[in-house]
Amino acid sequence: MHHWFDSPPGRYLLEWEQARFDAAVADVFGYQSLQLGMPSLQGLRANRMPHRWLALGEMPPQPTLAGGTPHLLAHAVALPFADNSLDLLVLPHTLELSHDPHTALREVARVLVPEGRVVISGLNPASLWGLRQMRARWGQRLGSGTLYLPDTGQFIGPWRLRDWLQLLSFEVDEVQFGCYRPAVRTQKWLQRWAWVDSVGERCWPILGAAYFMVAIKRVHGMRLLEPAWRSTRPRAAATVPVANRATASPFIDRNFE
């Protein structure tokens, strides 16, 4: 995967994702943020939190460390952080490369503070790149064909990911698609198809090769209801007339005598 991002289509994808991450994390405030995976992308460089960490599952080759040396080695399915301790998590292709993306998302929900944000990028299976990859896999089963994307991880569609996030009480705040150029391998042909990006955004926006998603962790609090007898206005005491002997009628007084 690291070597593929050094290719022309990999750099094209990386440039689009870098711009999305920079815009998404610039105005997210807090104290602690974490990027999990993909050191060739600097997902937190535009963020201003005092503590920004890079965690990798394993130490990659030195030339791919464009975002700096990792601060810790950790797997997405077992994050070494306490509950409700991180304000921002950045997952560039992390779920696709995880052997258990469901558990990884549950870990994200565990370590994020209420109203914390998770920023995710991935490859869209419903795109020209996804179709090219599926055709190549069928060709390999028949004894021919070359894969366009690395044969690592698995596709996770944006609609499927949205459902997973909603089950974990996340609210999807933003979804973007990009990289509409065909699945070509050289920089020359990528430049020739550059006009497709603007057309794709207008005509088939959900068919981009990559998607970008921002979700917020929502925690619904309890509201104590006031008892019914506390909200009911007290009734005014009814007045009871008292007979006054001095003002009583003479007829009544004579009868009692």
Helices, strands, pairings?
Blueprint: H1 8-25, E1 32-36, E2 51-56, E3 72-73, E4 86-92, H2 94-97, H3 101-111, E5 112-123, H4 128-141, H5 158-167, E6 170-178, H6 187-192, H7 195-203, E7 210-217, H8 228-231, H9 250-256
Parallel strand pairs: 1-2, 1-4, 2-3, 4-5
Antiparallel strand pairs: 5-7, 6-7
Describe the structure.
A 7-stranded mixed β-sheet has the order 3-2-1-4-5-7-6, sandwiched between helices. 31% of the residues are buried. By secondary structure, it is of the alpha/beta class. The radius of gyration is 32 Å and the shape is globular. It has one domain (4-217): Rossmann fold (3-Layer(aba) Sandwich). The model has no long low-confidence stretch (mean pLDDT 85). It has helices spanning 8-25, 94-97, 101-111, 128-141, 158-167, 187-192, 195-203, 228-231, 250-256, and strands spanning 32-36, 51-56, 72-73, 86-92, 112-123, 170-178, 210-217. The protein is built from 9 helices and 7 strands. Helices cover 32% and strands 19% of the residues. It starts with 7 loop residues before the first helix and ends with a helix.
Any key phrases for this structure?
single chain, 257 residues, alpha/beta, Rossmann fold, seven-stranded mixed sheet
| Helical proportion, percent range | 25-40%
CATH topology grouping: Rossmann fold
Number of domains: 1
CATH class: Alpha Beta
Main sheet strand line-up: 3-2-1-4-5-7-6
| Content of β-strand | 15-25%
The CATH superfamily label reads Vaccinia Virus protein VP39
End-to-end Cα distance: 116 Å
* Computed Rg: 32 Å
Question: What is the H/E string?
Answer: HEEEEHHEHHEHHEHH
- CATH architecture descriptor: 3-Layer(aba) Sandwich
Largest sheet: 7 strands, mixed
Runs with pLDDT <50, length 5+? none
Oligomer: single chain
Average pLDDT, all residues: 85
Please report the number of helical segments: 9
DSSP summary, beta strand count: 7
- Globally, the shape reads globular
- Going by helix content, strand content and strand pairing, the class is alpha/beta
